[in-house]
Amino acid sequence: MTIELEHLSVCASDDQHHELLKDINLKLHNGTVTLLIGHTGSGKSTLLQVLAGILQPSSGKIMLDEQPLWLKGKVDRAHLLRLGLTFQFPEQQLFAGSIRREFAYSLRPYGLGAQERERRIQAAREDFDPHGVFAMDRSPFALSGGEQRRLALATTFAAAPDWLLMDEPTAGLEAAAVRELLRLIRGRERGGFVIATHDLDTFFPLADRVIVMDHGAIVADGAPADLCREPELLARAGVGLPSCAEVAQSLAGRGIAIAPDRLTPQLAAEAIEEALLVRAASAGRGLERSAPPLAGAGSHVGGRAAEPAPAPAAVEASAQQAQRKQAAWLRLDPRAKWLLYLLLVIGTMLQQQWVGLAAAAVPVALGFIGIPRSVLRGGVKIVWPFLIFMAMSVFLAGIQYTATSAHLPIGFSVERAWSTMLNVTRLFVVVIAGYWLAATTPYGQLVQGLNWALQYFKKAKLPVDSFALAVSLIFRFIPLILSEWQRFSTIVRARGKAALRPGTVRARDIPALVVPLLLSMFYKAEEMTVAMEMKKVDGKLLSLKSNLLRWQRADTVLVIGGVVCFVLLVVIRK
Ligand SMILES: Nc1ncnc2c1ncn2[C@@H]1O[C@H](COP(=O)(O)OP(=O)(O)OP(=O)(O)O)[C@@H](O)[C@H]1O
């Protein structure tokens, strides 16, 4: 199967002007191993996710055997089954209760017969489990980090997709596992590999082709040996050289010339030995030999000509411009935002009538003006479950049991349902106000603003440390839940081969997702609590840094606005 990308671009979800991938043109042929290399943040993982059908291009096309991968905003499922993705931290893509279920989840979309399924599982276990730790009923979470990585690779290989798209597959793997992986890649007879990696030593000797990325664009595309002869190009793209090519460079400085494309230690050693023999022979003849020209020196990298990377200053300027555009709320002092938040929350909680509640919702809604779209999308993800919770609460509250009724003993009280609706709507406005505060205030500022308020209580000898820790954790958790949900839903979609619009999850995948999501949250909560406890010095709260707390005129205006809203809400509360 051939994969072809034509003028493909991907924009950031929160800023359509920020291109993560720029005008990518690429044809990947069956039977090839292609490396994606580039500095961190150059777009390798993004490109892999596009190739895997996880991320939809903003413009341009991705074709598989000349058929489009995306049709009407949905990815074609038949194609999806032919693509397999392993994530940058493959152990994090595990979520089932047992190793058996991990394999079952990966193989289910392929609808295999029991015998074939068993055969593939056994083959993958033989390849990836040399120490026999993959007992089928064992929990994947009882494996070590390296073993979990092996298991994640085993489940992906067992599905046997045509194309394996691997993000940093050797990171965290022991040498024996890396050797095994290389053997499997070499031994594969069909399909192809695209491997995003910083591990040039391992993969350069194996690759047919190397694509160099820089700031979302392809800046070079050629055979590994050719690229080794262009060290300046790799240096410009922020990529080092494989060790063997570095050795060749270093030897050249000492007058020993070997070609820089001897990419395995064995080939390099042979070349060095040969060069030393030549030198010894020359010295013996009393001849002053000049260093021979390096093999292939001055050749150009095959395929595309290298394009200059965007000037760092220009990139910096556009990043600053984007930040300025988004940061109106972020620039405000966290103390002002805390005060506004408290005023609006108290004002909201006072409301007993729908009119007052609607009036309280107006300033909260206004707070979302100018906020990046990705943040709004995060808010929508909170809104949906909350609306379901509201509907259920209202329904249950309205149900009435009337023992005296002659016919049906169950009735529905609209009055009670209505009053519950008022209560949960009030809660809803408070939750949304909390989301606004968390989303518009960097975490450090949030904590410092809170500490500023609490120091007055502390002076009054009130025990506020634990309270500060708890509140800080809660506010840290709201965005964390959303980002973890996003991460897990991507993994579930990649492994479950669901032909869905990006950002959505099948109902049947939710049970599989919930447990690992909760486990991951608990783990993160523990990490965060320890980190925050450690930040306390001698039992004191995190010290205030004046540079994070800068009160400006806009903050005064904001607080005055908050006080006015609060007074109005107090007046209309009944
Ligand atoms: N959803 C997103 N919204 C905004 N920017 C994003 C998003 N996803 C990735 N980016 C940005 O896109 C750029 C490319 O990220 P990507 O993960 O593809 O880089 P990478 O080359 O794989 O890096 P690494 O080698 O560190 O894994 C980064 O600058 C990253 O911050």
Automatic annotation (TrEMBL):
SUPFAM superfamilies: P-loop containing nucleoside triphosphate hydrolases (SSF52540). It is found in: Cell membrane; Membrane. It holds the Pfam family ABC_tran. Keywords: ATP-binding, Cell membrane, Membrane, Nucleotide-binding, Translocase, Transmembrane, Transmembrane helix, Transport. The keyword Transmembrane helix applies. PROSITE patterns: ABC_TRANSPORTER_1 (PS00211), ABC_TRANSPORTER_2 (PS50893). It is a peripheral membrane protein; Multi-pass membrane protein. One of its GO terms (cellular component) is plasma membrane. The chain crosses the membrane at residues 382-403, 424-446, 466-485, 551-572. GO terms for molecular function: ATP binding; ATP hydrolysis activity; ATPase-coupled transmembrane transporter activity. InterPro entries: AAA+_ATPase (IPR003593), ABC/ECF_trnsptr_transmembrane (IPR003339), ABC_transporter-like_ATP-bd (IPR003439), ABC_transporter-like_CS (IPR017871), ABC_transpr_CbiO/EcfA_su (IPR015856), ECF_ABC_transporter_ATP-bd (IPR050095), P-loop_NTPase (IPR027417). Its main location: membrane. Residues 3-240 form the ABC transporter domain. The keyword rRNA-binding does not apply. Belongs to the ABC transporter superfamily. This is ATP-binding cassette domain-containing protein. It comes from Paenibacillus sedimenti.
